[in-house]
What we know:
Blueprint: E1 14-15, E2 18-19, H1 27-37, H2 40-57, H3 74-78, E3 86-89, H4 92-105, H5 112-128, E4 141-144, H6 150-167
Parallel strand pairs: 3-4
Antiparallel strand pairs: 1-2
Amino acid sequence: PGADQQDGRHTTVLVDGRDVTWLIRAPEVDRNVSVVSAYPEVRRALTAKQRQIAHRYGRGDADRPGIVLVGRDTGTVVVPDAALKLYVDATPEERARRRHRELEKQGKPVDYDQVLADMIRRDRIDSERAVAPLRPADDAIRIDNTGQDAGATLAQAVRVLRQKVASD
């Protein structure tokens, strides 16, 4: 995010030069993303694009800077050969609290119980879908960040990364 973007975002998402950061984080998108992403042709198209991005940036070796990818099937489907996989999770209640707080900061009043119900529904749909179900990769290092802020989670991830680099 640029210095002029003091709206709580951690990243900016552009589509054809248009800032869609908050549009793709709208509650109606959250409620429907799992349904749409369950279509095999949608998964194939998205996976191909994600792999293209991963290949472009690489693992941070040679002349490519490396990249951090986030997604519910990133370590199992998109880049199963990634050098380091973290499966970061928290309880549904914790994730719903965070999402509820984020929406309120955007001035979007939403009921916490609805956010929690939507979160649980999305987890169920994503875990039970036939194509690329939500699950940690067998070789992923699991981090439960329930009760942690972003800084503590980042510090834990950096420790894991340093241990991995030291052991390789």
